[in-house]
Amino acid sequence: MSKDIETIIFDRLKLDILQGKYGPNHRLPSENQLADAYRVPRIMIRKAFEKLEEMGYLYSKQGKGRFLKSRHQQLELLLSGKESFSQKMLEKGYDVESINIFCKKIDYEESIFQELGVGEKDRVFKIGRLRIVEKRPIAVHISYVAKSIFLDIEERGKEIVSMFEYYKSKGYKSFDSGKSVLSVSLPSLEEQTLLDCPPLIPLLVLETNCIDCISQRVLEYTQIIYRGDSFKYIVK
User: Fold this and answer.
1) What pLDDT was estimated at residue 91?
2) Residue 81: its pLDDT value, please?
3) Which pLDDT belongs to residue 46?
4) I need a surface site. Which of 35, 78, 118, 235 has the fewest CB within 10 A?
5) Measured between alpha carbons, how far apart are the two ends of the chain, in Å?
């Protein structure tokens, strides 16, 4: 029964936040005030507050209470592998930065190698970029690229911040994407660090590829991890 009451209290507090009862950096009622209002033990209010903190809604100040975080404007994003993420954001007038965070050879993974259309003996490299928009880290782009298609990828991969610009430098001009797979997950410890997010912020994971329109060659297989609280997603 107590679990049901805890859920009801959490849901009511979350609804108050979503409906705008509290403004950015507004101090919420204390644990004691809410415990009296709901006629429940203080521990139930504390658990609800702690869960809301983990979901990124609140922050604490020692000795002062809990406050509502400023909710950043959600960015509209067309989910597509045809265009550069940075270009999409720049066209909307946002300040965008991309940082190369790794380039490393991967061991054989059948699904990835099949997506690229290469054999087990080929060398495939995993290139990661962190996307920062308006000073906030909000996405991680991971591209899998075969060395048999791009001979200099091992050397160049460490400095690439835009795969589309790299492909254009190789003579590819227009791009398409095949099927896309969407899934939702919670961030790993590494993803929490990279995206500066609490453990209960949902992540949207897009798996797709990039295909050269003329030759129909698969240039890369891609996994993109978006902070679920930072975007409004457009699917066409």
Assistant:
1) 76
2) 57
3) 93
4) 235
5) 45
pTM: 0.76
The partner residues of 105 in beta bridges, in order of sequence, read: 125
Judged by DSSP in three states, 42 sits in helix
Q: How far is CA 104 from CA 25, 111, 124, 181, 189, in A?
A: 42, 18, 9, 24, 20
User: Which positions of the chain have pLDDT values less than 70?
Assistant: 1-3, 71-74, 78-83, 233-236
Alpha carbon separation from 212 to 91, 143, 215, 236 (Å, rounded)? 23, 15, 6, 20
Whole-angstrom distance, CA of residue 119 vs CA of residue 148? 10
Residues 195/140, Cβ–Cβ less than 8 Å: yes
Residues ≥6 apart with Cβ < 8 Å to 132: 96, 97, 98, 99, 138
Looking at beta carbons, which pairs linking 203-209 to residues 24 or more positions away fall under 8 Å?
A: 203/227, 203/228, 204/228, 204/231, 204/233, 206/79, 206/180, 206/181, 206/182, 207/180, 207/181, 207/182, 207/183, 208/81, 208/177, 208/178, 208/179, 208/180, 208/181, 209/81, 209/115, 209/177, 209/178
